[in-house]
Amino acid sequence: MPYQEQNTDPQGAFDTYYQGVLSATKEQQADVVVLHFGQMSKERVNDIGFEVESRMRDLGASKGSIKRVFSIIVETLQNIRLHGEKDPKGVQSTYLIVKKDEKGYCVTTGNLIFEENVPSIESRIKYINQLDPEELKDYYMQVLTNGEISHKGGAGLGFITIAMKSKNNLNYRFKPLGDGLSMFELESFVSLN
Amino acid sequence: MQKLFIEESKNGPQILFDPEANNYSVTGRSFPENAIKFYEPVFDWLESFSPPPNAELNFNFELYYISSSSLISLLEVLRKINNFKINGTSIKINWRYDDDDDDMRKIGEDFMNVLGLPFEFIEN
In this structure, which topology does domain B4-123 adopt according to CATH? Predict the structure, then answer.
């Protein structure tokens, strides 16, 4: 059944989507480093950061790649806490999967946003993806030095920082879930040196 | 003037600005969710502090991790430190970083270039 016909339960659609992502992950030849599904609290952001750090240390990751993945996780999750929407029951559902394969580490997050915000998010990521590293650094300096904090407390540096730490293009996906809400999935890679 | 002391937490650095001991340091990880709120007491302290005449102040920064919203607040902290130069105070920033942490060194270099403050880079 196409999703358009079941548009009254965005939370259910979100859960179903996550289950799909999870089973796809399990089929891949990748080690799952950390998984989270559900409400993302302030404490959870800290805990996940430290959990990933210690798991990566156990996996023998370099200090540099641990810091880069840690940074991506903190920026992504704080972005979601700041801008992510809640479902009709007031839950800010989020999922996070950190996995490792022979190429490197991959951080995937999914959260709810309003469909009307899809174009602005998409154009920001597209803009960042087409910059070369030097242009990205210039753009970062420009935002940093003109740094104005939005009313939500964001500095506008989140996606830029994620792209700089990842050194790869950011992958993203949107999927309408009903009730004017959409899934926003963001995937960043940290290649092994 | 009373010293400023903020204890280190999971996502906030330890901050000690102690004029009596001539010790000014920011140490740890900085990724509080609301960086502006976290750094507000630091801004306030720096705004009301007037260094003694001809003072030489060394500020030690030893940060392991800085989130993007903390970067904006730290730049503001450094701007306020930079303002002491108007009164003839000489300022130096000691920027300590992990030996293999190029990103952290670059953050220091960016701050130095933006503010024109003297930085010493010290590899741990």
Answer: Transcription Regulator spoIIAA (3.30.750)
A150 touches chain B (CB under 8 A): no
Do B68 and A50 make contact, defined as CB atoms within 8 angstroms?
Answer: no
CA angle B118, B123, B124 (to 5 degrees): 130
A41-61: average pLDDT: 93
Which two structure tokens, joined as six digits, stand for B42?
A: 């630091």
> Which chain A residue lies closest to B66 (C-alpha atoms)?
A71
A5 has pLDDT over 70:
no
CA distances, A111 to each of A46, A115, A172, B3, B19 (Å):
18, 12, 12, 43, 47
Chain B residues inside the 8 Å CB shell of A50:
10
| Residues β-bridged to residue A187 | A108, A171
Minimal Cβ distance to B67: which of A75, A141, A147: A75
Does residue A169 register a pLDDT over 90? yes
ipTM of the complex, rounded to two decimals: 0.92
The CATH code for residues A3-191 is 3.30.565.10
Q: Does A80 touch chain B (CB under 8 A)?
A: no
pLDDT(A148) > 70: no
